[in-house]
Amino acid sequence: MNEPAEIGDLELAALISSRICHDVISPVGAIANGLEMLAEEQDEAMREQTMALIRRSASQASAKLQFARLAFGAAGSAGAEIDLRDAERVARDFVQGAKHTLTWQGPPATLPKNKVKLLLNLVALGVVALPRGGAVGVEIKGEAPAVSFMVRAQGEPARLSEHVTSLLAGVNGLTLDAHSIQPYYANRIAAAAGMTVSVETRDKEVELKAA
User: Which of 80, 99, 158, 202 would you label with 127, given CA atoms 20 to 30 Å apart?
Assistant: First the structure.
């Protein structure tokens, strides 16, 4: 499904829903396959390996859904604030794994929900910038609510496509699908939060800033 930017709220909701489903279908499918294997497998060693796969996949699915709840969801009523400690927890569960690590530097403050949603979407884009894995670093500076964010993705290669950076910058006339909806949504959230996003790419490093 491709839609020209800027899109309406119904199309935005549909594409975000597709993005979330895309993220969770793999671990949920692995759980279903594991349960089928358990029903047929008699060897205890194989059953234990299958259970380990199910547990790992369930953890991944939970992490992705908890992240999506804060990054895309309402997360409370209008005007609600979100504790950065909650944001850090879901970000760690979402990012850290076999290929990626996360460092987080910032005060234990609460921020307006749109600012936290923007930060988490930038973290997700930091992961996107590291297709082969690497380190994602988060820095939060300033005193709440007047804070700035920096998300640094370091690895080889570290890159964001021109399409992604253009959507982050708010360029219209570009096509959107479930894969590219994240930078478009991040730009919309930044505008709602009164912030501007910039991207700098250097050798083995992508830096996303919001202020």
Answer: 80
The token pair at 32 is: 């279903």
Decide if 39 contacts 56 (C-beta within 8 A). no
Amino acid at 69: R
For the whole model, what pTM was predicted? 0.89
Is the Cβ–Cβ distance between 76 and 112 less than 8 Å? no
Inter-residue contact 159 to 126 (CB < 8 Å): no
Q: Which residues of the chain have pLDDT under 70?
A: 1-6, 75-79
**Could you check whether the bond before residue 4 is cis, i.e. omega within 30 degrees of 0?**
no
Angle at 23 between CA 171 and CA 164, to 5 degrees: 20
Sign of the four-CA dihedral 109, 74, 32, 95 = negative
Q: What is the pLDDT of residues 111-158, one digit of tens each?
A: 999 999 999 999 999 999 999 999 999 999 998 889 999 999 999 999
Specify the fold of 3-210: Heat Shock Protein 90 (3.30.565)
Q: Is 113 buried (19+), middle (13-18) or exposed (0-12) by CB count in 10 A?
A: buried
User: 């804070």: which residue's tokens?
Assistant: 147
pLDDT at 3: 47
Tokens standing for residue 155: 């690895």
Alpha-carbon 204 to chain mean position: 20
